[in-house]
Amino acid sequence: MAGLDARVAALELELETLKKAQQIKGQVIVPERFDGAREKLPTFLAQVDLYFLQISDLSFPTDTNKVAFILSLLTGPAGLWAVNVIRGNSPIKNNLVDFKAALTETFG
């Protein structure tokens, strides 16, 4: 549990750092957090896709990095779902397409 808390804290710090850097550069900002509201999912996924288009592959070189970033943006019911994905060692953590499909199946 302490390891998970440390990882979440590190991801949140990285998220805040990225938000500030993006706002300074005037580029696309980090997507808003997603709480699981069905009507917000298409916009959230579009913002995530746009963000990854703007950020070089050096920042998120693997699907696992991209999924971890998205997991850090999930709150409320979606955040609880994220905890289950992380703790359950789900294989969708390593595949962005499968992860988005599971997120859409659950909240879309």
Automatic annotation (TrEMBL):
Protein name as it appears in the record: DUF4939 domain-containing protein
Span of domain DUF4939: 20-108
InterPro entries: DUF4939 (IPR032549)
Pfam family, one: DUF4939
